[in-house]
Design goal:
The chain is an all-alpha fold. Helix content is 79%, strand content 0%. The chain has helices at residues 2-27, 31-38, 42-51, 67-77, 84-110, 116-161, 167-201, 207-220, 222-246, 254-287, 304-316.
Length: 317
């Protein structure tokens, strides 16, 4: 959690500095600056947004309370890409997160502390294969957002609503297409997660064979995996709902806003790690033996699966 939070902070701080400098250059020590400290000034922010470029163009009402979360989900389902500076930061964050995910899954599969040095070594061990999987994932997401999305919400939607006179029926059709698109996103995410788990736990080197194994694993256990995925998503939804309840507004004290926002970031990181952990444990319980996740002896094996087999042998003897 500390590693992922640190990467999140390091990636976003430069963007915050750029935004800070642009706002300072715009306001300076004027009377408008004093009024801006008291709350959201719609007139000034509208003027600022009309002149802002790059990351400063994101300084809109979407930063207030939990509006950013809603706006992000809206952009995802409407296949809208973020501004270039933000997209660059997201790309850096995703690459580092992919590298760290190998160490995270291995640590959760072993069910024992491994130490910072070993965690870094494990992350480096799996980095190459997980980055190759990330390239496959990028192609899959591009197909969903760039090909499937226009087919659903342009071609199919126009065809289905061509002779529909009721606005409520049109809204219902669009909502149904959103549900279908969400299911496609969820299925893709689940397959990629299971593939990541198999790459790490089984110490596989071929990404294509791991994807095939992940597809077979999901195909043979569709309902239980769907239930597990739904429970994980529900946990994230509950977390998001709590954030909407406590998210700071424009008039909140600075330290209160900082503590609450960073607390939400840490909770989101915890939720994602728990997401991966539940999938790893489910996989271990299905394809390995019942004691796979039992705390192993403190020894350094070639892979998590080898350590589990040795522990089982030791218990039986």
């Amino acid at each position: 959690m500390l590693a992922v939070w640190l990467i999140t902070t390091l990636v976003t701080l430069p963007l915050a500095v750029v935004l800070h400098n642009d706002i300072e250059a715009q306001l300076g020590s004027s009377a408008m600056a004093e009024r801006a400290l008291d709350g959201w000034d719609a007139d000034w922010t509208g003027e600022f947004a009309s002149q802002a470029q790059g990351v400063s163009a994101t300084f809109t009402r979407e930063i207030l309370r939990a509006a950013g979360l809603v706006a992000t989900l809206s952009r995802l389902f409407d296949a809208q890409w973020p501004p270039a500076p933000v997209a660059g930061a997201i790309l850096i964050y995703l690459v580092v997160s992919v590298v760290l995910s190998g160490g995270i899954v291995d640590r959760l599969a072993r069910a024992r502390p491994v130490g910072a040095a070993m965690f870094i070594a494990l992350s480096g061990r799996y980095a190459g294969r997980l980055l190759r999987l990330a390239l496959v994932a990028a192609v899959a997401w591009w197909m969903l957002l760039g090909i499937v999305h226009p087919l659903l919400f342009d071609s199919l939607f126009d065809r289905l609503t061509r002779d529909v006179a009721s606005e409520s029926s049109t809204l219902g059709i669009r909502a149904g297409l959103y549900v279908l698109f969400a299911l496609l996103l969820g299925a893709t995410s689940l397959i990629l997660d299971i593939t990541r788990v198999r790459l790490v736990v089984e110490d596989r080197r071929s990404v294509l064979s791991a994807i095939g194994a992940g597809l077979r694993f999901v195909r043979r256990r569709p309902w239980r995996l769907t239930g597990l995925y739904a429970l994980n998503v529900l946990a994230l939804v509950v977390l998001a709902r709590l954030w909407m309840q406590v998210a700071p507004g424009a008039d909140s004290p600075a330290w209160t806003a900082l503590v609450l926002s960073q607390g939400y970031v840490i909770a989101r990181i915890w939720g994602r790690i728990a997401f991966l952990g539940s999938e790893a444990v489910f996989y271990q319980g299905e394809l390995a033996h019942a004691h796979y996740t039992a705390a192993p002896l403190p020894r350094w094996p070639d892979a998590a699966s080898i350590e589990a087999v040795r522990n089982l042998r030791d218990r039986r003897s």
